[in-house]
Fold these 3 entries.
Entry 1:
Amino acid sequence: MKKSSNTFLQDVIEGLSNTDKYLSSKYFYDEKGSLIFQEIMKMEEYYLPECEMEIIKEQSFQIANQIPFEEMDVIELGAGDGSKTVEFLEWAIKSGKKLTYFPLDISAEILDINQNIVNQRLPDLQVNLLPGDYFHTIDRLRERTPPRLVMFMGSNIGNFTGDTSVEFIRMINDFLNPGDFFLMGVDLKKNPQTISAAYNDRKGITKRFNLNLLERINRELGGDFDLQNFDHFGTYDPLNGTAMSFLVSLKKQEVIIPGHSFWFDPYEVIHTEVSQKYSLKDLDSLAEKTGFSWDMHFTDNREYFSLSLFSK
């Protein structure tokens, strides 16, 4: 059994002990899970990366021109490898802005990749890495005086459920000074068949991604999940815009994690992920609820995705 954090074990025990079993989606992204997610990003059915990149390439100049600052901090939450963001940064610089880029991510390794990608493309841009949980590391930037653009890309807002999305955006608003900006990537409501296909692809890549969470528990916590006894199921409710993923127990079975035992009934599910979709009207309402003075939406040609700009 590999050494693992107490937090991972505690979260798994808590989730599997609940009446309605669940596992946090934040644990999808170990080394193997991250590689599978790269496959998902290239799937024909998974429209999000293509749509977001279309907006970045075709409308970043217009987005940058909505922001009146000549000099500003660009603070990106969950920045990842920066391969998309560098496109936006380049356009912002072409629009005449002087930037300082602060990528925040829980993975120090991915931030090193981010810095290399950005430095190769924009060698004169100052990049200051902030590894760790961005809920905490963002506070280290509160005392800086330049105007701010906070970026939250890739439809990560969809991982927040119910009122937690409002609380999160209010937190961003609280971090900003009057006149600052917030740019958020959002997966929009669309044909339910299109969304359903993205979470139930024909090649079963999403299924492998979901099942890897059980594999990770086996690898790192010494669990004995038999992956043959579980299936993947993805749903989408077009009324509330919520997509969810589950792992389904295919039989009555017991799973052991050293010191803990969990029984599964036939067809009992483990909830693993939520991905909220929004309409443009939903986003206007969200801006109003969270204290922003106005918002503007930049969409791809099919209106599948939005980069939504909020001003405090």
Entry 2:
Amino acid sequence: MNYVMAAITQFHNGSSEVVLKARGRAISVAVDVAEIVRNRFLSDIKVNSIEIGTETVENERKEKFNVSSIIIRLGR
């Protein structure tokens, strides 16, 4: 709910667009935030775009691996 409230606050402060970004297991959280904002709080908000991709991440042992990512743009 913290992310939902942050997004709603941005819209109430005059922002015309809010961008949600997530990687890996947090992708489902970003999708949930977008849906809760749209369906429960601000019905005039639309999904402007959704971008999906893969990022290469390096851990502390210098091993590289791929992580899925998503960017959801919400707007009025």
Entry 3:
Amino acid sequence: MEEPHDVTLFDVAADKRGILPPREFLRSFGHVDVPRLLYHGNANEPFLDLVSDGTLEGMTFEGVVCKGGLVSPGRPLMFKWKNWAWLDRLRGLCQGDERLFAELA
């Protein structure tokens, strides 16, 4: 059985400026289907623990995408942080194929 999928706008590259920083993105596109802002602040250890444990209110089962200030023109800091339960489920689906797990995680 196929899972339902939705299309959600989460990044916009604007001309030569590159990807819009988070605040500008929300200001410009917050009126359409974009991911909900779950946290504002530094991605510190207590925040990352909430994501890892799957206890951050509003997060998906997989985890979160974090975005911050620009690391260079047009390149905001961006990274994913995964929920341990999701990683465990993915390991099971990969059935010991660590190469496949690394590609999907």
